[in-house]
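Q: Sequence in, structure out?
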Amino acid sequence: MALGDTIAAHRRLCLLRLLAAAHQYRSPDALLQGGLDAFGLGATRDQVRGLLAWLAEQGLVALTSPQDGVIVAQLTERGLDVAEGRITAPGVQRPSPGGLARSALRAAAGLPPEAEL
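A: Exactly. Output:
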């Protein structure tokens, strides 16, 4: 797998996990872009929207545009299964089994350490 493909797969997983930690499993693209930055997977807004469109094509998220220029992503049940490692999806990095990633997601989402993800 090429480096670009590997980075995209990691970004896709990170987006799914950020949505899994978000209130009502949804978030605008600007906040998701900040989340990628926080995990060292920085991307432009255009790249984030491309990743979200890809995830929507796979049935892992649903996208809405409540206002001009704003895209809101909502995690689907299948997307949650991928984010939590219950199933795999080609093109999305498989999550590691350790709790470190979950702790980091809790912190990025502003959740207490004991919050369930």
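The two ends are 30 Å apart (CA to CA).
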